[in-house]
Structure formats: structure tokens, C-alpha cells
Amino acid sequence: xxxxxxxxxxxxxxxxxxxxxxxxxxxxxxxxxxxxxxxxxxxxxxxxxxxxxxxxxxxxxxxxxxxxxxxxxxxxxxxxxxxxxxxxxxxxxxxxxxxxxxxxxxxxxxxxxxxxxxxxxxxxxxxxxxxxxxxxxxxxxxxxxxxxxxxxxxxxxxxxxxxxxxxxxxxxxxxxxxxxxxxxxxxxxxxxxxxxxxxxxxxxxxxxxxxxxxxxxxxxxxxxxxxxxxxxxxxxxxxxxxxxxxxxxxxxxxxxxxxxxxxxxxxxxxxxxxxxxxxxxxxxxxxxxxxxxxxxxxxxxxxxxxxxxxxxxxxxxxxxxxxxxxxxxxxxxxxxxxxxxxxxxxxxxxxxxxxxxxxxxxxxxxxxxxxxxxxxxxxxxxxxxxxxxxxxxxxxxxxxxxxxxxxxx
Length: 409
Ligand code: GDP
Ligand code: IMO
Ligand code: MG
Known about the structure:
By secondary structure, the protein is α/β, with parallel strands linked by helices. The protein has twelve helices and 20 strands. Helices cover about 30% and strands about 20% of the residues. Helix 3 (about 110-115) packs across helix 4 and helix 5 (about 150-160) runs antiparallel to helix 6 (about 170-180). The protein is globular, with a radius of gyration of 21 Å. Bound molecules: guanosine-5'-diphosphate (GDP), 6-O-phosphoryl inosine monophosphate and magnesium ion.
């Protein structure tokens, strides 16, 4: 048995959904611990593509318990829509889904505020930031409140006192209805998970977003509002850090980010178009084109450190198949000084010159490779250079979006 945490080691969209789906084969329980439906995790099975926003990516496998922890913010409307989408595709949702009674609820005003104020950061507009603000301000509404009419009324009316924009009565009625529909999923998640650990069950924690979007360790203020790093798995579920056995980071073989914020290795126009098209780099949640760039070892080294990564999974190696030269950023240069470690000063990230190493490309299709030893020589050299620079082991490589297109090293 083991408790493994899977985190994004860049700016999100590293392919966590696909990797969780693979690892979920041997797990009993899959747990989301932070974020909300700002996430978009893609799993491709045969010719079917599933995009999960809130429900753990383990839901596509039979006989797995999927859990939404207390650290997640839940939009009940989005949750019910996702359940509906899965059921339409033949995935039954009943006792295989459990939601923490303590998870905070996204309300209509959170979404309105987010759309109004989030442009500078380029948020997903899902109400994530404003919901976490209320949580921290201690005026949030939790899932358990949705099944307690008195408590819901008191809190909602207090939050909306003096507001002419939102109708507390209407929201109250709408959310009471959601409460009736989600009641069967509510549970004391911390108790359930800790009992499962005693019974030696295998648990997989599914991180959303990525390390550089983490509220503490990311490129603040261009981040999300939750703890997307491995520590979030403990605070976001009530499973103590001593129970976690392994932390796995997922990285793309290059870099992408959606929304605003510094991106030292961002491509110029021509390469941007090439990689965006080949990698189909469009947001799984908002459809926005993702910004693309070379692999940035400075940020991933930071992710190795702050997550305590035991190993990494490298995804989308195949997207580099047609590049004759590939660059890796090993350090930044700013005002004459070299930075090998991630700087806290956003000005350095915005104005530094990335210092690159160049590797030879392999110019061969890797999408049908199923064993590490069958990769082209330069692809192996590229991976070992990454491993050396990051000082971490590569545990798995992914060469396509399908379940079968990945192999362990
Ligand atoms: P997540 O948010 O980390 O789960 O990642 P997303 O699902 O937002 O984005 C990853 C995208 O890359 C999805 O469209 C996946 O189907 C796709 N993908 C995952 N792994 C690979 C891979 O190894 N190669 C290619 N070409 N696509 C991949
Ligand atoms: P997954 O789990 C990539 C980005 C947004 C924006 C910033 C803040 O699919 O990897 P928010 O709505 O969270 O307040 O937006 O964070 N962002 C993501 N980028 N992948 C994600 O999730 C993201 N979730 C949020 O684009 O820049
Ligand atoms: Mg995504």
C-alpha cells in the first residue's frame, strides 16, 4: 500500500490527468485536494476524450473511490453538470464519489467578482479566488451548510447584506436545491481516508494547477489561490504529512502557461505557432491558446525542492519530434548576475535573459515507442540531461495522449 501525491511541476496542464488515470489502475482511492473547476484534466481512452474539472481523474476506472477533499472549492452547479456529462458517457456516479463536508462552496457572486477583477491575472473566471478569499476571511459557506437551511440562510444573508446586485433569497433557494442533490456524496473525508490508510489501501492524491501557480511558491501574484504543491495534499484532506510515501511531479518536455505572468523561456511567434499546433496547446477549461516555451530547468528545480519530488514523469516528448535543435534553460541572467535558483523577485523573472544549453533533436516519430531503450539516442540524451540538471529521477515518459502511450523507465 502507499500514499502517493501527483503534482504539476510547471504552470499547470502538464498532463496530470493522463498520468493519474494510468496510476489509478493500481490505486483504491483518488483524491483531489485543492483548486476547483479551474482545472481541466484530460484523459483519453481509445477514441474517447474526457475532460475532468472537479471530479478526480480516477473516476473513469471501475471500483475506485473518488474523493473531493476539504481544500477544494466546489461549484455545485459545475459539479452536477460534470456528473451529468459522465453519466451520459456511461460512467455511473454514486457511492464512487465522496465530497468533504468542509469543502467551501463557490457562489454566484464569487464568479461575478472573479470575472470583474481577474483580468489582470487572466483567471479562469470560475470564482476560485473570491471563494478562497471568503474562506480566509472566515465568512465562507461550506458544503455542510447546504444541507442545513438555517445555517445557509444566516451566512448567505450576512454575506449579501446591503447588496443590491445579488438576490439572497434566490441564491438561497437555488443552493438549497443543490444541497438536496449533493447530500448523498457528503462525508467526513479525513476520517474515511485515515481509516483507509489503516486498512492499507492505496491512495493517490491528484494535484491541480502546478507548482508555479501555487499561492506560496508560484510566480505571485500571477498564481491561483490555493496550495497546488504537495503540502496541500495534507491540509486539503486531513491526512498528515507522515502518511505520505511518495511525491511525483509531472512535467512537460517543454513549458506552457495560460493567463498572464512572467515566462522567461516563452517562444517567439514562429516556434510558438509550431509547438502550439503540434501539442494542441489550447486550454482544457477555457479554450484559451496556451503560451509555449522551452523547458525551464530553473522553475522545475524549484518544483523539485518545494514538493520534495521523489521522481518526475516527462510528458509530451513526442511534441518535440520534429525539432532539429532543442533548448533547455539552465539559468537566468539579470543585471549582470546569474541566477540558477528560482528568484522571488517578479522583476527578475520578467526581465531576465534565459541562459540556454542546446541539445540535438531526434527528428523521429516517438509516438509508438513503448520502451525507453527504443527511444532515439538524442531523445534519451535530452531526458538524461533534464534528469541531471534537476537532480531527480525520471520514472515515466509519455509520448502521446492515449493511455498506452507511456512507459516506465
Ligand atoms: P492536466 O491539466 O495536467 O491534466 O493537463 P491537460 O489535460 O490540461 O493538458 C494536457 C494535454 O496534453 C491534454 O490534451 C492531453 O490529452 C495531452 N497529453 C498528455 N500527455 C501527452 C503526451 O505525452 N503527448 C501528447 N501529444 N499529448 C499529451
Ligand atoms: P490544471 O489543473 C493551467 C491559471 C489561470 C490564471 C491563474 C489564476 O488543468 O493544470 P484562477 O482561475 O485559478 O484564479 O486563475 O491560474 N490556471 C491554470 N493554468 N492549468 C490549470 O489547471 C489552471 N488553473 C488555473 O489561467 O493564469
Ligand atoms: Mg489542464
